[in-house]
Specification:
It is a single chain. The chain has 2 domains: about 5-100 and about 240-315, no CATH class; about 120-230, no CATH class. About 75% of the residues lie in helices and about 5% in strands. It is mostly helical and about 325 residues long. Helix 8 (about 120-140) packs antiparallel against helix 11 (about 190-210) and helix 10 (about 165-190) runs antiparallel to helix 11 (about 190-210). The chain has helices at about 5-10, 25-30, 35-45, 55-60, 70-85, 90-100, 105-115, 120-140, 145-165, 165-190, 190-210, 215-240, 245-260, 285-295, 295-315, and strands spanning about 265-270, 275.
Length: about 325
Amino acid sequence: MKKNFLAIALLTIAGGWWMAARPGDIVTDLGLTTEQVREAAFANITSDHLSLPYTSKVRQLAKKIPDGSRAAAVNALGGVIRSYASSSDFRTRYLNWLKDKYRISDEQTREATQAQSTSLNDAQAAYNQQVAMIQSTYSQMPPATLSMMIQSQIEMTQQDAADAEGAEKTARTKELAELKRLQALSKTNPTEFKKQYVAHFSKMLNQQAAADQGKMEEDLARSKQQAADYQKRLADYKAASNLNAVLKQHLTEFIALTGSVDFNAQLTRNGSKMEFVNPEYRNKSANWKLLYRMGKEPVLAARLFAQTWAKELETKK
């Protein structure tokens, strides 16, 4: 069970510390800073690990509190924590933390929405549009520009042919011969060169488009799966972004745990350690045992505080 950040109030006065039960002064009375309490509160609602603003000075105060002041201390510190949990700063920090946790952004949301609505025909049409745009651009270039471009194409094809084997090498060698023929034509008849080169280039683009059909289908399937995964994260993020519901869940879990503690449980010594006489209690969670060690007075005070808070959150749905 995720630890409830209200447990800060309990653990901070575990063993009972003497202090003035005044919400405005209790943080100072504990030798803490407001920032330490806020950081601990935030850490405890965003982590499975309990974070406590302990200092050696505060520990020393633990032995000095008399019975009867612990419930007031719990209520005072609980009020400080509750006030921060209700602030816009806490809400903003929490939502930003959630976005990082679930990897959510406006850009990814737009991309996922687009990917889910894109069909194979849409992808093919977009690809064909790109091919048509390239063909149009090449057809508008002067022969001199195309002549410079074909030289680079020849060099790349030579490298591809040198690295290829078998049928691929044969195809690259044939392509290289055709490019060199067109290059020679550019020097004798630029107009004819442009006509033939644009036609040759369009043919190569169409062949490439056919070859890319399978890859296009794979890419589309992958993008749709990624979009589905993102939508799942987005749904989880939206569910967790209801801070009142999250707080109420933590409080409800805490209330259930405190209600299960048997403060009359007996202990017996086993070597150098103390253990519960009832063997069932020996397997209880660390939180359950911690509440037992704190004692009935502060735990029941924290339970009542949590019940009141949870009830008020219920009306804010």
